[in-house]
Amino acid sequence: MPQFDETELTAAVIKSFEETPNPRLKFLMSELVRSLHDFVRRTDLTFGEWEQGIDFLTRTGQKCTSSRQEFILLSDVLGVSMLVDAVNHREREGATQTTVLGPFYVGEHKPMPHGTDISANIEGERMFVQSRVTDLAGKPLAGVPVDIWHADDEGFYDSQKPSYETAGPSLRARFITDADGRFFFRTILPCSYPIPIDGPVGELILETRRHPMRPAHVHFLVNAPGYEPLITHVFIEGDKYLDSDVVFGVKDELISKIEVRNDATMPDGQPASGPWHLMTYEFRLKPGKGTAPKPMLPAAEHA
Ligand code: BEZ
Ligand code: FE
Question: Does the Cβ of 104 fall within 6 Å of ligand 1?
Fold first, then answer.
């Protein structure tokens, strides 16, 4: 009957994966066990703490539904999502920086004409977004789908509102770049917002005296054949949470200075009613492949 002391046990569990046919799975399981066992030894984990941990993970799973992904939120607030992003994007070679997808991507929509106001019936300060997609050498990439989504000026995504199923999408859209790689649209200035805190991840944030805020941003997913899919945000310069994003997603290069304009017309020549903001940002794609992520949430009926 084999018996193991603290360190022999780790070696025995790793050995138990010896026959795993998939070498990557064998490696991942061995390293996971090594790290978990190290954690238990280094912390002298008590039975009570271990039970608490199991209870926390159980409740995290129970909180997940088809429209709520508490495990991804946990990965985000522990910095794991950004670490996975970092190790997979070590060499950018001048390509636009990446950041977290977040839980509010619902997948593709029917493309909208350039200039569309994606904020119809939503209160807020007006913003015009003009952008361009190029390769690393600055050559425009035409016909590229760009998915956009952002929160309203109270910090909510459309998918968090009861009206989502019936009202269809707002503050989210798909545009296709023109022959010069450009796309542009109207919307409202987003604001900083708290991640969902009505679950176990929220309890963890409160218990550890962290704040739950993300700095204001617009999400972009640019997916051109022959290039790595680009998942990123453009952050609004001056936001007070840029230095303490609860999911560690901010990178300097992704912060955009938003100009305040009083011109009577917007860049596409259409009239402006009152002051407006201008966001200008260019995305540079890296050659490669990869598939765009699957949405975390189902699209609304009307999408
Ligand atoms: C978001 O930006 O939509 C987001 C990202 C991570 C966690 C929660 C929200
Ligand atoms: Fe977001």
Answer: yes
Whether residue 298 has pLDDT greater than 90: no
CATH assignment of 61-302, given 2.60.40.10, 2.60.120.10, 2.60.130.10, 3.40.640.10?
Answer: 2.60.130.10
Q: Which ligand is nearest to the CA of 74?
A: 1
Pocket of ligand 1 contains residue 214 by CB under 6 Å = yes
Distance between Cα 293 and ligand 2 center (Å): 16
Q: What is the 3-state secondary structure (H, E, C) of 163-228?
A: CHHHHCCCCEEEEECCCCCEEEEEEECCCCEECCCCCHHHHHHHHCCCCCEECCEEEEEECCCCEC
Are 86 and 178 in contact by the 8 Å Cβ rule? The answer is no
Condensed to tens digits (0 to 9), the pLDDT of residues 111-145 reads 999 999 999 878 999 999 999 999 999 999 999 99
DSSP 277-301: EEEEEEEEPPB----PPPPSSPPPT
What pLDDT is stored for residue 303 in this prediction? Answer: 37
- Pick the ligand that lies closest to the CA of residue 217: 2
- Name the residue type at position 299: A
From 75, 98, 100, mutation site for ligand 1 pocket: most ligand atoms within 8 A of C-beta: 100
Among residues 76, 144, 104, which one has the least CA distance to residue 299? 104
